[in-house]
Design a protein that fits this description.
This protein is mainly α. It has one domain. The protein is built from 5 helices and no strands. It has helices at about 1-50, 55-65, 80-90, 100-110, 115-165. Helix 1 packs across helix 2 (about 55-65) and helix 1 (about 1-50) runs antiparallel to helix 5. It starts with a helix and ends with a helix. The mean pLDDT is about 85.
Length: about 160
């Protein structure tokens, strides 16, 4: 009987752990989008004051904004927009970006580096505003769904434990 209770407790806790992991993913997405907002701002500053080529500017901005995992390869034989898309598609799943987040980032990179500095700065500001909308949605989802996921995970675990008993 004691082993059964220990097993039921483990099942209930594992359900709660699944809820916590889902909740953490919501916060991870929010934090990643915040980092990309800082990245956009840092990239604008780098372009405005350093007049670097776009690739070194993106690498420097990614490192300065906490996006070390986001690496745009520096191969001049491949067009920048293709390298950018590869970098976006290689963002780890642990960052929990959804398809609309990735589409926004890919769209951002397709036009980056193709105009003069003022055009690029305008492009960055436009996409920064669109990223702000995604960020506000991510913050709302984290606030509303986080508690729900934890509760559902615990409820599912307890329900399974009761079925075992």
């Amino acid at each position: 009987m004691i082993l059964k209770l220990i097993g039921c407790s483990a099942v209930a806790l594992s359900g709660f752990a699944v809820g916590l992991m889902k909740s953490k993913a919501l916060y991870s997405r929010r934090d990643t989008l915040k980092s990309f907002d800082v990245f956009f701002s840092t990239l604008a500053t780098n372009l405005r004051y350093n007049a670097d080529d776009i690739c070194p500017a993106t690498v420097a901005s990614a490192g300065a904004s906490g996006l070390e995992f986001f690496c745009v390869e520096q191969n001049p034989e491949i067009p920048f927009d293709i390298r950018w898309e590869r970098a976006v598609n290689n963002i780890p799943r642990s960052r929990a970006l959804n398809n609309s987040d990735k589409e926004l980032l890919i769209s951002f990179g397709t036009k980056l580096g193709k105009t003069d500095v003022e055009g690029q700065l305008s492009h960055i500001e436009l996409y920064r505003a669109m990223l702000q909308k995604q960020l506000s949605l991510a913050e709302e989802a984290a606030a509303q769904k986080s508690r729900l996921f934890k509760t559902l995970g615990l409820f599912g675990g307890v329900s399974a434990a009761l079925l075992i008993l």
